[in-house]
């Protein structure tokens, strides 16, 4: 039987341009109604023992072409253990080489987190007695926007992820954070006594299912909608921000992945008009304590900071800090390996993302009384 390639499944994305035995020329599809593309996820079948050569030919025009340097595609033969494939990038072409031992093998930009996994996570966490689940609304494609509420303390803490759907490490982070919050760990007990947690594990289920990198079903980048969301373009943000207006926000973390920077870091709210020293000190304290806790986090590498009054208030971290006086931040994890603690076999991985979720909450517990 001839080798075949498909991405006709939840989160899949690839087009076959040319096939010659075990050699394929491929292209990543753009997000619908958008020029963004970088996420790929596909299955190769009937390939046991074949020396696959998979050339993704349009990487030079992708959203973040610097993301391909020193990057390794992820490969799995069981859909669970994702390892780094032999990967090279030159002249706009990403070449993946792999010889599968099984008939089917999957390749992805990062370990996927499917909508089926999302629904299983929601059901498992919501089954705990002290967790409230509600569907805020439906997306434009008719998918639920899920909100989990835990705890009863006076502080209002919001955690949300996957505004950019291709950044699947963000929902792996959520899995680790939620598993801690429903456990008997003293960190969870302290947090839930002091705060009420509002958790949106996937802000962009439409983009996730469609195999998008950065946008929802109508090509909108949700993290540029927080100043003026609308029901016809960005209902995901509109509904979440409406609940935030009811609850207020004391602390918020927006969880992401970064294509180019091989480190874990946070970005804050420098440059908002109402910036206060207290907000800035608490943000800096969180970052420094997280760096002291784990080698997987650092404070030297990240994004440039905005000058006074120059913050982009369409982005959630800036909007929440300005709107509520919150200590808010964007957490970024790499698609590449983490240069501070490299793992040649797995690179940055689901387990390290889950552990980062647990570590972030441990740091928050240490400073929760000062928020």
UniProtKB/TrEMBL annotation:
Give the species.
Answer: Sphingomonas paeninsulae
Q: Which PROSITE patterns match?
A: PEPTIDASE_M14
What is a single molecular function from GO for this protein? zinc ion binding
Q: Which cofactor does it need?
A: Zn(2+)
Which family does the UniProt entry place this protein in? Belongs to the peptidase M14 family.
Domain of life of the organism in this record? Bacteria
Q: What is this protein called?
A: Peptidase M14 domain-containing protein
Q: Which Pfam families match?
A: Pepdidase_M14_N, Peptidase_M14
Q: Which residues form the Peptidase M14 domain?
A: 111-368
What residues form the catalytic site here? 332
